[in-house]
């Protein structure tokens, strides 16, 4: 009952325009604008059971050593040496602005030696195996590397998340774990955690790239890095790959959820009700907005009254076993005073 009440209140507030019921994270600031809402893209999202009745997925390909456990994950590599696997979207991502959330898992028995890691790709090429976390080197686009093995000494810890913007000619700096061409990075213990591990990528065309990681506690997102004024290739393919060598881990993709992001208008007024001034002349649009605000206020008030009344009636009915107490002439515990009250033939 309380859940229904909250739903009705949420819808009522939406009508009033004071509490938009939108996807989480929709208040992201973009200069003087915000991401108003997001629309999920089925073509670039994948969830259990991952495959259809033909043992394929309409929108995704997987290959090399990758295999699907329909109840749990797409396993890119087993916890064994010399493994390589990948998962790639079949269609390019044509949205101008988007939010990608990847739930993954990196696990293995060893607590000292493990590797090599996995990568999330937004590139012009797709499904080309190679030495960079299971995908090709000299890529064009964005690579975000979840690196679990340090090839050299560093002042920071591993596992580590490193991003590189490839131009199609520059190789990945394997010996120094991507330091030479890193556009952003952070250390994060995403391996063998007690909570769900996720990576969230938010991109606004030619404006910024923001990466957050979830690994510490439930609903606790940590900022990894933020890059302003970045331009990714138009219509890239979305992919995830993983690689093991002499050291190894199991690398799993649990789900991928991609949303197209809709930004607020550049010239949206801050106060839609005030027009040219609170006490000055209001144009027809402002008067129309005020009229609709009043209508919404009336609808909202009616919804609140209905919810409260329904909840009170539900509570009384629970306490007294129904609206009518075995012909006692009461409604919710009160006398009907000759009005007949509500009978069992007409319930709320």
TrEMBL record:
<feature type="transmembrane region" description="Helical">
    <location>
        <begin position="290"/>
        <end position="311"/>
    </location>
</feature>
<keyword id="KW-0732">Signal</keyword>
<dbReference type="InterPro" id="IPR013320">
    <property type="entry name" value="ConA-like_dom_sf"/>
</dbReference>
<feature type="signal peptide">
    <location>
        <begin position="1"/>
        <end position="24"/>
    </location>
</feature>
<keyword id="KW-0472">Membrane</keyword>
<dbReference type="GO" id="GO:0006888">
    <property type="term" value="P:endoplasmic reticulum to Golgi vesicle-mediated transport"/>
</dbReference>
<feature type="domain" description="L-type lectin-like">
    <location>
        <begin position="38"/>
        <end position="261"/>
    </location>
</feature>
<dbReference type="Pfam" id="PF03388">
    <property type="entry name" value="Lectin_leg-like"/>
</dbReference>
<dbReference type="GO" id="GO:0005793">
    <property type="term" value="C:endoplasmic reticulum-Golgi intermediate compartment"/>
</dbReference>
<protein>
    <recommendedName>
        <fullName>L-type lectin-like domain-containing protein</fullName>
    </recommendedName>
</protein>
<dbReference type="GO" id="GO:0000139">
    <property type="term" value="C:Golgi membrane"/>
</dbReference>
<keyword id="KW-0812">Transmembrane</keyword>
<dbReference type="GO" id="GO:0030134">
    <property type="term" value="C:COPII-coated ER to Golgi transport vesicle"/>
</dbReference>
<dbReference type="GO" id="GO:0005789">
    <property type="term" value="C:endoplasmic reticulum membrane"/>
</dbReference>
<keyword id="KW-1133">Transmembrane helix</keyword>
<dbReference type="InterPro" id="IPR051136">
    <property type="entry name" value="Intracellular_Lectin-GPT"/>
</dbReference>
<dbReference type="InterPro" id="IPR005052">
    <property type="entry name" value="Lectin_leg"/>
</dbReference>
<dbReference type="GO" id="GO:0005537">
    <property type="term" value="F:D-mannose binding"/>
</dbReference>
